[in-house]
Amino acid sequence: MSEIRTYPKTANEARTSVGAVLRTLETSGKTSRTQKPNPRPAGIGIGSREKGGSTAVPRWLALCVGAAFASWCLGCAGPPQREVVVMGMIHGGHQTSERYGIDTVKRYVRAIKPNFILCEIPPDRLKAALTEFRQTGAVTESRVRRFPEYVQAIFPLIEEMDFVIVPCAGWTQEMSDDRRAKLELWETTRPEASQEVDRAEQAAEQEIEDRGLGADPLGIHTDAYDEIVKRGLEPYNRLFNDDLGAGGWDHINAAHYALIEAALDTHQGAGQRFLITFGSWHKYWFLEKLEKRRDIVLRRPQDYLGG
User: How far is residue 69 CA from its own chain's centroid?
Assistant: First the structure.
C-alpha cells in the first residue's frame, strides 16, 4: 500500500528555502531571463505554460554513460546509488494521445518501480484528493482533477505497487489567480511583450510537432525536446518572471525544485528510486539542477522499457 509523505508540510514552508535557490540563480546571472509555464491555466496542452552548443555532450548520452558507469561500479564498490527519473507529463494530452496515453503512463510507472513518486500536486491538496479517490474512485479536488496522470494512472496503481507519494508543487491558488490576472491585463497594457511571448511559445510547439517529438514519450525525453522548450520559454521568463513574482517561471520552478530536493535529501538510503512527474515543459529546468548533484544517477524513462 502506498503512502503520502510531505517535505515540508506546506508550500509556504517550502518557500522559506526557495530564497537560497533564487540567490544561487541570481549569482549565476540566470534569475530572471530564461524560461516559462503556460500563461493559461496549468494542466492544458503540452506543459503547464508554464542548449544547444555544438560542443556540448548530449544529455541523453551523458545519462546513459553515467548509468552504465554506476552499474559497473556496483560490482566493485559499495551499495547502489539512488536513481532519479524525470518523466514529463502532457496532462490532458494523456487522454487522447495514441503513444502517450494513460495505459502508457501506467506501463512506465510499473517498469520503473519507484520507491517515491514526486508529483506536481501542492502539499495542501494531495491528502484530500487521495482520501476522496480511495472512498469514491474519483477526484473533484480542483487542482488535482485536471491531471489525469494521477487520477487515472498513478492513483489506481496504489493498490498494486508500493511507493510513497510526495507532493512537490509550489503552486498556491492565490499565486495562480495573480498570475492569470496579470497575464490577461498585460495582453492590453503590454501587447508587444505578450505577443513576443506567444510567438516564441507557438514556434516551439510547432517545431516540436514538425519534428515528431510531442505526445510521444520517446520524443519528449530527449535533449532536442528540452532545447526547443527552453528556447521557446526564454521571452516569457525574460519579460515576465520578475513582474509575476512567485508565479514567474524561474521563481515557480525554484519553489517546485525546493520540494523535490527536500525529498531527495530526506531519503538517503542506497538503491532508492525516485520518479519525478511534472509537466514536460518543466523537465529541462529540473534536469539542469539535478545534473549538478553527485549523489544520484539520472535515468530516462525509456531506460526501463527500451527505446
Answer: 26
Contact of 35 with 49, CB cutoff 8 Å: no
DSSP 8-state code for residue 125: T
* 3: exposed, middle or buried (Cβ count in 10 Å: 0-12, 13-18, 19+): exposed
| Vertex 230: Cα angle to 178 and 235 (nearest 5) | 55
| Type of residue at 76 | C
Which one, of 87, 90, 124, 113, lies nearest residue 4 by Cα?
A: 124
With CA atoms as reference, report the closest residue to 220 among 57, 100, 42.
100
Q: Where are the beta strands (DSSP E) in 175-299?
A: 273-279, 296-299
Q: Give CA–CA dist 120/39, Å, rounded.
A: 17
Sign of torsion over alpha carbons 145, 164, 5, 217: negative
- Cα end-to-end span (Å), the chain: 30
pLDDT tens-digit series, residues 70-121: 444 444 455 678 999 999 999 999 999 999 999 999 999 999 999 999 999 9
